[in-house]
Design a protein that fits this description.
358 residues, 7% strand, single chain, alpha+beta, four-stranded mixed beta sheet
Length: 358
C-alpha cells in the first residue's frame, strides 16, 4: 500500500513540477497526513517526515525513468544532449528557475516535429494578414511545444526568433505565452498586484532616508505637486531607487530631438524600456517600446507599467535571465507583485516584503 501511495502521489506531483523543491515535498506530505491521519508516523516531526523523504526518493527514480524514455523536460538536462566540451552535470542545466509549470512540454498527442513545423510555416503566412487574431492564437497554442523546446534547447538570438516566430512579439501573444508557461495571467495580475501594493509601497518607500530618500522624494515630487502623471510610473521608478538600482538601466527616456542618439544607445541595451517624449520630461509619451539584445521587439505600448509587465513576460517567453543590474527589480515583480514562488526571497526583497506586511 505504501508503494502504491508513493507511486500515485509522485505521478501527481510530476504533473505540476518536474523538479519540486524541498518545501513542496513538505507541503504534499502535510496535505497527505491531513487528508488521511492514519498515515501519520509516530515519533517523526508533524507525522510526515518519513513521507517527505520517501517522496523525494520516489520522484528521483521517476525522473530517471522518464529521462530514459526521452521526456523533453528531463532529457534536455541529460549529458547526452550537451556538446562534448560542455558535458558537465552542473553546466548549462536547463531547469525551470522561475515557477514555470510548462518549461519544456512534450508534443501534443498524435503530433510530430514535422507536423508542427508545417503549422509554423502556415503561422508565418497568417501573421501577415489583417484581423487574423483568432487563427494566430490557435496556431500559437498548437505549436507551443515545438517553440518552447527550440527556445530552451537551442537558445536562439532575438533576430532569429523574430524571423521564425514573429507572433510571439505581439502584446496579446506575450500574455498568452506567459499563461501557457506559468498558468498565471500576466498583464491583469501585474497591474492588479501593483495597485494592491501601491499604498503600502508608497508608505515604505517614503520612509527611506539619506541620499536614496532624497532621490525618491525628487521622483515623487511632481506627483505630490498634483502634476498629471501616471501614479504607477512614479511608484515603479521610486521602487527601483529604493532597491538600490538605477532607473536608467531599465527605463530610458528621450525627447524627439534625441531620436538618433536614442537609436544608437539602444543598440547596446540588453533589456530596456524606451520612452519617447515630445518636448519635456513631464509631457505624455509619444511612444513606449521594448528593446531586447539591442533589437526593438515591441512599441506603441500604453504605459510604463504595462511595458514592465510585457518585459517581465518576455523573460519567460524567450527564456531570458534577469539583467544583473536589475535583479532585485525583477525579483520584486515576480515575488511581490506577481506572487510567483514567493516562499523563497533574497534578503533585500524579504525585508521589503516584511515591511509591506507591517
Amino acid at each position: 500500500m505504501k508503494s502504491d501511495i508513493l507511486e500515485k502521489v509522485s505521478d501527481l506531483i510530476y504533473k505540476y513540477k518536474a523538479y519540486p523543491k524541498s518545501y513542496h515535498f513538505c507541503e504534499v506530505s502535510e496535505a497527505l497526513i491531513k487528508k488521511h491521519p492514519c498515515l501519520a508516523e509516530p515519533g517523526s516531526w508533524n507525522g510526515c517526515y518519513g513521507w517527505t523523504q520517501r517522496l523525494k526518493t520516489r520522484m528521483g527514480n521517476l525522473c530517471t525513468q522518464l529521462k530514459g524514455l526521452g521526456c523533453p523536460e528531463l532529457a534536455v538536462n541529460s549529458l547526452k544532449t550537451k556538446a562534448t566540451d560542455d558535458a558537465h552535470p552542473a553546466k548549462n542545466v536547463k531547469r525551470p528557475k522561475r515557477g514555470e509549470a510548462n518549461h519544456v512540454p512534450s508534443y501534443p498527442a498524435g503530433e510530430t516535429a514535422d507536423n508542427l513545423e508545417m503549422e509554423r510555416q502556415v503561422l508565418l503566412k497568417e501573421v501577415k494578414k489583417r484581423n487574423n487574431g483568432r487563427i494566430i492564437r490557435e496556431k500559437m497554442a498548437k505549436t507551443f511545444a515545438l517553440r518552447r523546446q527550440e527556445i530552451v534547447e537551442k537558445q536562439p538570438r532575438v533576430e532569429e526568433l523574430q524571423e521564425r516566430w514573429p507572433a510571439i512579439f505581439q502584446e496579446e501573444e506575450i500574455n498568452a505565452e506567459f499563461l501557457r508557461i506559468t498558468t498565471v495571467l500576466l498583464q491583469p495580475r501585474f497591474l492588479a498586484g501593483l495597485d494592491k501594493q501601491s499604498s503600502q509601497l508608497l508608505r515604505v518607500i517614503r520612509k527611506k532616508g539619506g541620499a536614496v530618500g532624497e532621490k525618491i522624494r525628487s521622483t515623487l515630487k511632481p506627483l505630490d505637486q498634483g502634476v498629471d502623471l501616471n501614479i504607477r510610473e512614479c511608484l515603479l521608478k521610486s521602487l527601483m531607487i529604493y532597491l538600490g538600482e538605477d532607473v536608467s538601466h531599465l527605463i530610458k527616456e528621450y525627447l524627439v530631438v534625441q531620436k538618433e542618439e536614442a537609436k544608437a544607445e539602444l543598440e547596446n541595451a540588453a533589456m530596456a524600456i524606451f520612452v519617447l517624449r515630445d518636448d519635456d520630461a513631464l509631457s505624455p509619451p509619444m511612444d513606449i517600446g521594448l528593446v531586447v539584445d539591442g533589437v526593438e521587439v515591441l512599441n506603441d505600448l500604453s504605459s510604463i507599467a504595462s511595458s514592465c509587465a510585457m518585459l517581465f513576460g518576455l523573460t519567460y517567453a524567450l527564456n531570458l535571465s534577469y539583467p544583473v543590474e536589475l535583479k532585485y527589480t525583477f525579483e520584486t515583480f515576480k515575488k511581490i507583485i506577481m506572487d510567483i514562488e514567493s516562499r523563497q526571497m533574497s534578503r533585500r526583497i524579504q525585508n521589503l516584503s516584511a515591511k509591506l506586511q507591517e
